[in-house]
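Can anyone check this?
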Amino acid sequence: MGSLQRLMRSEMKHESEAAAGARRVRLWTRLAALALAVAAWTLGGAEGLIGAVLGGLVVEVNLGLLVLLLDRAPQWRGRSLKGTLARFYLSFLATALVCFLVIRFHWGHPLAFLAGLLAPVPGLALALISFAVSPLRGPDHDDH
């Protein structure tokens, strides 16, 4: 029974490290989106700001939906994933529709909107740098 408890604690530690890592990536992505919005406002005025903010919001909502879908997805062992795949496709189509509407009706500058959509790229790079500088360490972490 002792080895089962150690395994459970180990699994919980890895889940909490994964959650902490995901929070760090989302934080850096949001900071990158904010920096991109300020740059878009400086370079493109209100239209640039609106485009960058809309792009950042589309990414944030889409990533939130993806996390929610993955959390609620059935285990991969022997179960049907048709419902999960259908939800992924619906999420993708909704995102594509929002992107089409923003571009079609000029609800912001298209290049600023694209920059907002790409906010996870510098956000992920910054998060990776932050992991290199300050890795996640739990209270049970042993270096030897």
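Reply from J.R.: I decoded it. The CA atoms of residues 14 and 66 lie 20 Å apart.
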